[in-house]
Amino acid sequence: MAAEKLTMANALNRALRDAMRADDTVLMFGEDVGPLGGVFRITDGLTAEFGEQRCFDTPLAESGILGMAIGMAMNGMRPVVEMQFDAFAYPAFEQLVSHAAKMRNRTRGRVGVPLVIRVPYAGGIGGVEHHCDSSEAYYAHTPGLHVVAPSDPADAYGLLRKAIESPDPVLFLEPKKLYFSRSEADLTLPVPPIGTAVVRRPGTDATLIAYGPAVPVALEAAEAAAQEGRSLQVVDLRSIVPFDDETVCAAVRSTGRAVVVAEAAGFASVSSEVVARVTERCFHSLHAPIRRVTGFDIPYPPPKLEHVHLPSVDRILDTVDDLQWEDS
Amino acid sequence: MAAEKLTMANALNRALRDAMRADDTVLMFGEDVGPLGGVFRITDGLTAEFGEQRCFDTPLAESGILGMAIGMAMNGMRPVVEMQFDAFAYPAFEQLVSHAAKMRNRTRGRVGVPLVIRVPYAGGIGGVEHHCDSSEAYYAHTPGLHVVAPSDPADAYGLLRKAIESPDPVLFLEPKKLYFSRSEADLTLPVPPIGTAVVRRPGTDATLIAYGPAVPVALEAAEAAAQEGRSLQVVDLRSIVPFDDETVCAAVRSTGRAVVVAEAAGFASVSSEVVARVTERCFHSLHAPIRRVTGFDIPYPPPKLEHVHLPSVDRILDTVDDLQWEDS
Amino acid sequence: MTRDAALLLPSTEPVTLIDPDGNPVHVGQDMPDPQALVHAYAALIAARRFNDQANALVRQGRLAVYPSSHGQEACQVACVQVLDPGDWLFPTYRDSAAIVARGVDPVQALTLLRGDWHSGYDPLATRVAPQATPLATHLLHAVGVAHAARLRGEPTVVMAVCGDGATSEGDFHEALNFAAVFRTPVVFFIQNNEYAISVPLARQTAAPSLAHKGIGYGVPGARVDGNDVAALLSVLGAAVDRARAGDGPQLVEAHTYRVQPHTNADDPGRYRSADEVTPWLARDPITRVETYLRGRGLLDDDTIAGYGVDAEKLAETMRAGLGEDTVADYRDLFAHVYAEPTPQLREQQALVADELSREEAR
Amino acid sequence: MTRDAALLLPSTEPVTLIDPDGNPVHVGQDMPDPQALVHAYAALIAARRFNDQANALVRQGRLAVYPSSHGQEACQVACVQVLDPGDWLFPTYRDSAAIVARGVDPVQALTLLRGDWHSGYDPLATRVAPQATPLATHLLHAVGVAHAARLRGEPTVVMAVCGDGATSEGDFHEALNFAAVFRTPVVFFIQNNEYAISVPLARQTAAPSLAHKGIGYGVPGARVDGNDVAALLSVLGAAVDRARAGDGPQLVEAHTYRVQPHTNADDPGRYRSADEVTPWLARDPITRVETYLRGRGLLDDDTIAGYGVDAEKLAETMRAGLGEDTVADYRDLFAHVYAEPTPQLREQQALVADELSREEAR
Ligand SMILES: Cc1ncc(C[n+]2csc(CCOP(=O)(O)OP(=O)(O)O)c2C)c(N)n1
Ligand SMILES: Cc1ncc(C[n+]2csc(CCOP(=O)(O)OP(=O)(O)O)c2C)c(N)n1
Ligand SMILES: [Mg+2]
Ligand SMILES: [Mg+2]
């Protein structure tokens, strides 16, 4: 099949549909995912095609949604659930941490819970409070979960198919601000497995490490830097857990300088981990400490101030400028 | 008053009693904290002294406990609540992240919620699953919360008094395995404020950075290292948020080598943050990358295997040995 | 408080005092006095105007989003009118009209939905909690506020409002239970408008009614016609009185309907037919009480016109206040995370300040 | 399913079929047939022995902790006896005796409390979920398991057990509501033993009974004497039948009492008097049915002695199985976090392997 132009929302919808066609144990449920098709329309048409039993609305209770999904996964199903917005996944936290993440381990491998938790996440859409949290650190810190975040439509399709096929629970983070950005994609082409990072743009002077909504910003920064004669490599993590140490470290070693870019508050975050583990592994290849451009350690701002908080091209370039070039 | 020998449990009980005597808006509630005095007896005698209205049992619901505490704090009280065990705080996660942590900010500073969430936390006590989680990363990553962890009776007393006086919500992490270890303490002496780390043992070759239950292990390791002729400095963070960059960086710069020791799973954790921020600030003073000795990225083990998981003196010493001494 | 099932169960049908045609219905319940009804009528006119104006401001791009309470105004005004000044209101995102009825400045009441800040008014001064978006979570805060007041011996009652969908959340359960066990003076007021975004009530519960949840906590449940402001004043007023008298929490379910989309961003055509909506338009809360009051000579054209003028003034205030562009100050982002910013926040604020000063210098 | 309040409310008093003196009580309910009662009696003897032996093993340091169901054995055996082999049991930490009654190997059933691993038996093979420690959380899993079975058209019923304290958790609420809305075949079985560790029932709820919570979800509630195995078999059996027939979830509250400490680590003297406990000893679930069966010639000394021998064999198996020291394998820590260990886990396992090999080399 040839490449086509489509949005990440289209690609995710297609992935769900194709997965449900391929395997009738795949189910989709959550709040407003039935007739409405989800507040972002990611589940559009699924109830019509697969019926009320395969794609359905639940009562309004996130712990209930995830708890029921765990039970269904224990009993032969592959549920995909939607948490309507990032911050509305918090009521399900105990089910996530104490059960979804631990079921296989508690039962010494006897009971796996193959389920996918789709979370429309992060900001940049002018949403009011509780609608723009970047909550990946909570999940990434929890052993037993896979955590992935696509940054373009093709990868969104491929990663979601792989997440649904995974025997383990996958936190699938969908950058809301990328839902409706359109790009060329050939959905028939395979994508790298979960656990693999990819170099999205080659470069020789420094490496930008990003994931999810920060990837397009990093690419833009690299483009701007190129204009100024600086060559920035961009790595898209794709998978936060498992983490692809090999690709990331190879990239950082090749440039000797790196900046991690992420929307979440920086303190005790995924970006901290990237700095820590890459530094541990690449210390003697580094010309300067790895820097971070992240959200500040503040609650997500109201719409009129989010631009101050979000990693911007300028802030990335300023940080790259700061990477002690005079020393090298 | 002279120093006396007492346990951390005694010290915490004393702190609660003294705070309740000093300020009658201070209340204590949670599961089994009334007549029983808490499963660890930290609230022993409080109901008897202050009555049912000041120290009381609630229905068994952690979100309810924290949610009610937030309301009481909005209306002039200073509630202290107990989450019976670390993993049983998860049902309260949404109240913690979306409300306790954000109330002051949402209301542009008009409504603060002075409350303390006491969490008996971490392992080393042979507890079954869900009783030994080190959950500080979830809290430390959440802007709006202070996060502290004492490592001895004197500090437990002082920090809890300061936490209760704080105008902001404080996660107060009580290392369960230290509850009943006894040491000399003079509770009348002031302790440094929240936000301050202290050097618990001077040393010149490398710095161990620890907090909570890892501090005594780090001190033991330093003692053992001294026998082998290596001088290890031990920094006790005490306060994870706010973080004392000054003390920690000064310590690391003074030795040029450092190991972070923490019980929690390492990935995207407080220890990652310490490595990241200290490296960022002290890069050119470092002879080797800062290393971590942490719990593995696994669910907390069953009692018979916890010794494999917990940072041990040997593992710390091995890691110190690995700090590229040949290069210096 | 009682554990007697008969006293805890709601009536089989919702209480109505004025029927959709404006005629009084004779039930055991007392009709509120005429002044109260006229006062409520004026508030209804204002609330409707507030909703209409807010919708218009969304279309003009002056508000980011608006979840309208059009058709639910009787609930909005009644739950406020039954309160004393020292009482508290705990509203949701849908209750902006109630907040304004409570006396909060309408522009401040819309700060959240305008995108300026997460909340605009002073909760302590107004005794109105910040609007809650995470569903049912604020019900627990309401219990805490009421419990603190009760410990101090204050006569405060807390009106805690939520929707039908919110009753499915665990926090709803915990709030009712805590309130009941501690005998806390909270009136839990469910505006059952039959929908939670696209999800109809039947997908939310299989119970005879939401008010039937009360008995499971030992809390008396009551059902009331949510488009009948007289019945609402009567039932909510009685609930507030009982709570204040020390009878513990009360649960009131108002049966109403969300005639408009969930918010302006919603597309109800995807999940319900216009035919379902039409009968509800005939049950409009304003015409009903207006017919009743006019029929009894308690309201005339002049008075109505006067309320219209007042409502128009309110709308004018909204247009003026929201027409101005506000200047958002980045320092606010760092100032209120803690009582005192941490050293880390100071550093982060300095970074932004530096960026801005360099931008200006360019 | 019905929304008729009369059909959803529990009886005013718990159903009893055999009174504490062993006499039949004549109510509308059917007495289970003699074989069922004799079977239950044998199971009670085994359950009691299991509890006693487990307590002894704690004292000997062979078990880390034991939350005994002493005095609640009628609940333990009845909730299992009413199930078909294809049904599921969702137990808590207190329900080890029920798990063993279900046929799970007693040593495997104690793996958690022994500290070897988080769970010892195969949940899929035994259709017994791992014992839940976080309260009420497993009730939602029960709903999911039942819902999956129902979607496949299987006749599975799920017995989901919790305590009185657990009913206060939000997950209890969400589980009952989800089950009711989806008409899922789950029997929610509350063992109301009057205490949640030290917290008495009155601090847990102000409701007329816990079974009164059912109506708030449209779920029929029933109350039964939790020390009367005949009544339990009857009430739970009927609930299972209704659930299997497609009538949706059922809620059964058994009134019983925790005569022993919460666990061996507890000190009940701090929160209740011995006087409170004494009357409950007279209501022991075993003597009651024994008197009844003996009185009707359905049980004689020889049979009883035979059950005693069987129970002693069970105890012997426990002593033997738990007397051995097990070797814990550190590789288990890394093997089951995911279906395939991540590269990070492989590294971490290698680190431990290296430590151990160096230790051995010493
Ligand atoms: C915890 C949580 N989950 C999900 C949402 C997203 N959400 C916002 S409004 C809404 C529907 C609420 O319905 P209802 O309680 O009936 O109130 P109504 O909007 O009808 O007034 C949903 C699902 C939320 N705000 N909070
Ligand atoms: C979510 C959660 N909070 C707290 C606890 C600690 N805890 C263990 S048992 C218990 C009491 C439970 O009482 P109940 O539900 O009545 O069961 P019982 O022990 O009486 O059988 C408590 C508070 C827990 N296990 N899970
Ligand atoms: Mg609604
Ligand atoms: Mg109990």
TrEMBL record, chains A, B:
Pfam families: Transket_pyr (PF02779), Transketolase_C (PF02780). PANTHER family: PYRUVATE DEHYDROGENASE E1 COMPONENT BETA SUBUNIT, PYRUVATE DEHYDROGENASE E1 COMPONENT SUBUNIT BETA. It comes from Actinoplanes flavus. The keyword Oxidoreductase applies. Keywords: Oxidoreductase, Thiamine pyrophosphate. Its cofactor is thiamine diphosphate. SMART domains: Transket_pyr. Residues 6-181 form the Transketolase-like pyrimidine-binding domain. This is Alpha-ketoacid dehydrogenase subunit beta. InterPro entries: THDP-binding (IPR029061), Transketo_C/PFOR_II (IPR009014), Transketolase-like_Pyr-bd (IPR005475), Transketolase_C (IPR033248).
Automatic annotation (TrEMBL), chains C, D:
It catalyses: N(6)-[(R)-lipoyl]-L-lysyl-[protein] + 3-methyl-2-oxobutanoate + H(+) = N(6)-[(R)-S(8)-2-methylpropanoyldihydrolipoyl]-L-lysyl-[protein] + CO2. Keywords: Oxidoreductase, Thiamine pyrophosphate. Residues 47-302 form the Dehydrogenase E1 component domain. InterPro entries: Alpha-ketoacid_DH_E1_comp (IPR050771), DH_E1 (IPR001017), THDP-binding (IPR029061). Belongs to the BCKDHA family. PANTHER family: 2-OXOISOVALERATE DEHYDROGENASE SUBUNIT ALPHA, MITOCHONDRIAL (PTHR43380). The branched-chain alpha-keto dehydrogenase complex catalyzes the overall conversion of alpha-keto acids to acyl-CoA and CO(2). It contains multiple copies of three enzymatic components: branched-chain alpha-keto acid decarboxylase (E1), lipoamide acyltransferase (E2) and lipoamide dehydrogenase (E3). This is 2-oxoisovalerate dehydrogenase subunit alpha. It comes from Actinoplanes flavus.
